[in-house]
Amino acid sequence: MHNRREFFKYLGKSAFGVALASMALGAFRSTVSFAEQKLEMITDKNPMWKALEYKAKSPDKNKECDKCTLYVKVDDAKGTCMMIPGVYVGAKATCKQFNLKKA
Known about the structure:
Radius of gyration: 22 Å
Largest sheet: 4 strands, mixed
């Protein structure tokens, strides 16, 4: 093999290339299934959120989750928080990790 093009042609024809392709496809499938999974809304009683002083309704309109850099919007009422993945948080909730998005 004299150049990269020949190497990649060989790699594509080899069993190793097939194995790599199947691994990549498996990783893609796992990310799709994660995105499709059903998450539950967080509650004030969850121990981790107690530590973060999570409140389902923010007393300060300027410190609501939908204005935080850690919040990822799902719809108008809820989203996810990068602090604790795997649950939904309310768009109008807040916690002590609030970090205002820059305009």
